[in-house]
Specification:
alpha+beta; 335 residues; Jelly Rolls; 15-stranded mixed beta sheet; 3-stranded mixed beta sheet; 6 helices; Phage tail protein beta-alpha-beta fold
């Protein structure tokens, strides 16, 4: 006698046999059905690829548009600011403790050093330091010890404290370079000038060696002429005094003056440069001495500072210099 499990297995087999025996035979597939199925699948695949390409194209277009928008925005940001970087290049540095934006500057920077100031740069000099800056190719900006200057634009600096000297037309320049000096108390404008500006806790002192300076707050101005020094307080009240072109107040500016390439220049040109840098008047002993200076050319001397030039140039010529407080006397050695 069969058990229950064997009975169930027989019944299942019997049911399958019954279904299969009663089912109609499968129809034979058409010969071209394979090609139809392939075409259907290929159509679906092409539709998917097309959709993916459209999506990728939209994404790429979006990225490209974003890049273009970013470039346009960058250009707009650059155009918005009316101020540009100043053409200010460090040409000489002495002493220690000088920094630009907090970074130290070496004490003996060579002539034509590559340091070019940018808009917004902050220059601070150490207690025994001074720097000379070529300003817009023609001007000479010098900063004394313990001073802070901000390079605001291509024609403007801010003197926060300390002293600056500015020469708008250095020796042998074909033109002049303008500058506006902002101070905590007012602005300084010049007309073809050599001047010193000094900022203190209660006002500004302006000393003019050559030319003229206008100082004020935009509505009221104080004019300071060559040979004058004026202390101007917060209320624009000025106290004037006299100052000679050879006063000791100019000494630091002469000491930090940019060097001149002497080689290949006439002695006359060098003497005129010394006169401008030291404030001394040139006095020729006679016409022969002046003619000799005009026709004599210095050879073999490179970069040299004014005070050193006064000592060594006579050795390269037949002229003799006699220098006193106010004058440079020039005479021929053989007379």
């Amino acid at each position: 006698m069969k058990d229950d499990n064997e009975a169930k297995q027989d019944s299942v087999d019997e049911m399958l046999d019954s279904i299969l025996s009663s089912a109609s035979p499968r129809s034979t597939p058409r010969k071209n059905r394979k090609e139809e199925i392939y075409d259907e699948l290929r159509s679906e695949w092409l539709a998917g690829v097309s959709s993916e390409k459209r999506t990728r194209r939209y994404v790429i277009s979006g990225v490209a548009a974003s890049i273009v928008a970013a470039l346009v925005l960058t250009l707009q940001l650059n155009i918005v600011s009316p101020e540009v970087s100043p053409e200010a290049v460090l040409v000489r540095s002495t002493g220690n403790g000088t920094t630009v934006n907090g970074r130290p500057v070496e004490g003996s920077t060579p002539i034509n050093a590559p340091l070019r100031f940018q808009q917004g740069d902050i220059l601070s000099t150490g207690p025994d330091a001074a720097v000379a800056v070529a300003w817009n190719e023609l001007g000479s900006l010098r900063v004394s010890s313990s001073s802070t200057v901000v390079f605001a634009s291509n024609e403007r600096v801010e003197l926060l404290d300390g002293n600056i000297y500015y020469d708008s037309k250095p020796h042998n320049a074909s033109g002049s370079a303008t500058i506006v000096v902002d101070t905590p108390f007012g602005q300084i404008h010049h007309v073809g000038t050599q001047f010193i500006a000094s900022v203190g806790s209660s006002g500004v002192r302006v000393s003019v060696r050559e030319g003229e300076v206008s100082y004020g707050d935009g509505t009221e101005n104080v004019v300071v002429n060559a040979g004058q020094s004026a202390f101007i307080d917060e209320s624009l009240v000025a106290t004037f005094s006299s100052i000679a072109a050879t006063d000791d107040a100019w000494s630091w500016a002469t000491e930090i003056a940019p060097s001149l390439v002497v080689d290949g220049r006439s002695t006359l040109e060098i003497i005129e440069w010394l006169s401008r840098e030291t404030g001394r008047e040139v006095v020729y002993e006679n016409r022969a001495a002046e003619d000799y200076a005009r026709g004599d050319w210095i050879k073999g001397i490179g970069h040299v500072e004014p005070l050193r030039a006064m000592a060594i140039v006579p050795f390269a010529s037949d002229l003799r210099f006699k220098v006193d407080k106010d004058s440079i006397h020039v005479e021929l050695k053989n007379q």
